[in-house]
Specification:
- The protein is 49% helix and 14% strand.
- It is globular, with a radius of gyration of 27 Å.
- The longest helix is centred in the N-terminal third of the chain and has 22 residues.
- A hairpin with a 2-residue loop joins β12 and β13.
- By secondary structure, the protein is of the alpha/beta class.
- It is built from 25 helices and 14 strands.
């Protein structure tokens, strides 16, 4: 591709810096197009440059900085103009298809960023350019991928539906970049996927490639690669070795316009006491409000962990947050301690208009936090014209300990649980829960808090391991809590976590279904049911459950796990391309995940890549997996489910 005539927007001075909007565009599958028809492809690219790109640049006051084969680097003095130009280009590209067959159509991926760049004559350099290029690489075919500053700048000016991709770990970029994608031409991505599937090697061909790479028997080649990611060959049952429907790798549409009518998010309350030690009270009240609201029949309440991601933000734009969480209303407020009294201010805002619907202030004396919270819930429900049935919606008094000191320790522990996980916070939370249990041996939340810490430790989530009797003690605590509150939300969740730790997948299914029926806003129910279905050979049923859990909790700090689990399920269904997308999202969402976890996910990616005709990418994924954690074997991934089949086909009990 030859550079077009460059129109200078301003006089360039070598070494000068300037803040601009950068657009990086790249032709999808350019090497394949050249292989098919090099002269014809180059001629068509020149037509696109002359008849589409240059006119769009003139229309939007942009400049072609340079070209490199299939890539374009564009600059704009206006961010809005940059996005308008990118969108217009993507929408008009199909006009130039002519009579080309689907495998020869030219489509772009586009990345847009705002950056402070260094001018070098007519060229530009800097991290802003690099980020735009990396965003382009992460963009679906036919789409426009932008950084958060770009999305924030244009969100109030352009009626465009950007989907959040979360923080992406971009190659050679020091910090994760929060990204959003606009699917201008969704059909382009589907067409690209259909073409790739049509061209992909057969299962046997994929196995032959793996055999040659690793010198393994054909029958073990794919299973070994898959086993490193925690999915064994025993889960690939013939009944699920079929492609189920079209590709659906898109994130949920969270725009307010598509949100349920009674959808609410409770943002973290602000602590305005001037005493950082009181922060846990603000966190605890917000979490309790979210829990109580979720018990009102007909309400859709975003999981507290997603709402908690907004903690510390000085300003709140209800309309923006509504589009990020997929809700129509926000509850926010503040907490201030005045002597022995806690003053709580609460407001209800519309995410459609940004207007305040209701606001009030409550003074809660010591020991009356629960009653005060219930009054706030009643006011919110009344403002939304919802009739609350107190008996059915209110939580039991046992879940709010009568011992004020024990309740205080529980709130402090919950506040720690809302923060990013670490060994130190885990140990601190356990100490607080143990202290609460000593003060009030019948405290249900204290019992469940200790049990949860023990279960997590028994599974080595933070690289530390509990005592041999940890699960036994956790089971006893959950049993004691069930005796006091058999239908408690916390008890049902605790029992599910215990079954998961024991790998009792079949038993998890009815337990998860009970939780979903009783508390449809709890993400744990859908997540656990999906996992149980996946581990019992029903991956097709697991996929929509994982998607539902992502919708309820779209900003959960542990969302990277759900992305990966969905990818695992799609892999079981031979939906290789979709699986790769979700596993890639998982790796990008948490580049600091433990090394064994990241290694397992790279092994899944390797299998996905191998089965879609991408051997070079598969080589790289396996190499990365081995660098991260070279100790994975088939045996280490054998299922611990007592009902699992042993390799010889017998039913083996694992104790």
């Amino acid at each position: 591709m030859k550079p077009a005539t460059r129109e200078k927007l301003t006089e360039e001075v070598s070494g000068a810096r300037k803040l601009i909007a950068i657009v990086h565009a790249d032709i999808a599958g350019y090497s394949r197009l050249i292989d098919l028809d090099d002269a014809g492809t180059l001629a068509r690219v020149q037509v696109l440059l002359r008849d589409l790109i240059e006119p769009e640049l003139r229309k939007h006051n942009g400049r072609l900085v340079n070209t490199a084969g299939d890539a374009l680097l564009l600059e704009f003095t206006s961010t809005t103009a940059a996005v308008r130009c990118a969108v217009s280009m993507q929408r008009r590209v199909p006009e130039f298809d002519g009579n080309q067959s689907p495998d020869r159509r030219i489509r772009f991926r586009v990345g847009v960023n705002i950056g402070d760049v260094l001018a070098d004559g007519t060229d530009i350099h800097g991290s802003g350019v690099n980020v735009a290029a990396r965003l382009q690489a992460a963009c679906p075919v036919g789409g426009v991928c932008v950084s958060r500053p770009v999305r924030d700048h244009v969100s109030q000016q352009l009626d465009l539906a950007f989907e959040p991709l979360g923080p992406l770990a971009l190659k050679n970029i020091a910090q994760p970049v929060e990204a959003f994608v606009l699917r201008v031409d969704p059909a382009a991505a589907e067409a690209q996927l259909a073409e790739d599937i049509a061209r992909k090697p057969s299962l046997a061909a994929g196995a032959r490639w793996l055999r040659n790479r690793y010198v393994l028997p054909v029958g073990l080649a794919l299973p070994v690669l898959v086993a490193g990611a925690g999915i064994g060959w025993w889960q690939f049952e013939p009944a699920i070795l079929t492609v189920i429907g079209p590709a659906q790798a898109a994130l949920p549409d969270l725009r307010v316009a598509h949100a349920p009518p009674l959808s609410v998010a409770v943002l973290p309350f602000r602590n305005i006491s001037g005493d950082a030690e009181q922060e846990y009270l603000a966190d605890g009240i917000a979490e309790d409000l979210a829990t109580d609201l979720s018990h009102i029949r007909g309400f859709f309440v975003t999981a507290h962990r997603s709402a908690f991601s907004y903690k510390g933000k000085s300003t709140v734009d209800a309309r923006q947050i509504g589009n990020e969480l997929g809700v129509r209303y926000l509850v926010e407020g503040s907490v201030r301690k005045l002597g022995d009294t806690l003053r709580v201010s609460a407001q209800l805002a519309s995410c459609e208009t940004g207007a305040e619907v209701w606001a009030n202030r409550f003074d809660l004396p010591p020991g009356a936090f629960a009653e005060g919270q219930e009054e706030i819930i009643r006011r919110v429900a009344a403002a939304l014209n919802v009739r609350m049935v107190d008996v059915e919606s209110a939580r039991s008094a046992r879940e709010r300990p009568s011992n004020a000191d024990a309740f205080d320790l529980v709130l402090r522990a919950r506040s720690l649980n809302n923060q990013p996980p670490s060994r130190e916070r885990d140990a601190q939370a356990q100490t607080l829960y143990e202290g609460a249990l000593q003060l009030d041996p019948s405290s249900v939340p204290a019992m469940l808090g200790v049990a949860t810490v023990l279960i997590n430790q028994s599974q080595g989530f933070l690289g530390q391991w509990a005592a041999a009797d940890a699960l036994e003690r956790a089971g006893k605590l959950i049993s004691d809590a069930r005796a006091l509150e058999p239908t408690s939300e916390g008890v049902l969740i605790g029992a599910l976590r215990l079954l998961d730790a024991q790998h009792r997948w079949e038993d998890m299914i009815p337990a998860a279904e009970r939780l979903i029926q009783a508390f449809p806003n709890r993400v744990e129910g859908y997540d656990s049911l999906a996992t149980a279905k996946r581990y019992t050979g029903r991956a097709g049923e697991a996929v929509p459950l994982y998607e539902k859990s992502i919708r309820i909790d779209p900003r959960d700090p542990f969302l990277y796990n759900r992305y990966a689990f969905l990818g695992f399920a799609l892999m079981q269904l031979q939906r290789w391309e979709e699986s790769a997308i979700w596993v890639e999202r998982s790796l990008a969402a948490n580049p600091e995940a433990p090394r064994p976890i990241r290694s397992a996910r790279f092994r899944i990616l390797a299998a996905d890549y191998a089965m879609t005709g991408r051997p070079d990418d598969a080589h790289r994924a396996v190499d990365e997996a081995n660098k991260l954690w070279p100790f994975g074997t088939v045996r280490s991934n054998f299922p611990e489910n007592p009902a699992s089949l042993a390799p010889d086909g017998t039913n083996r009990k694992i104790k």
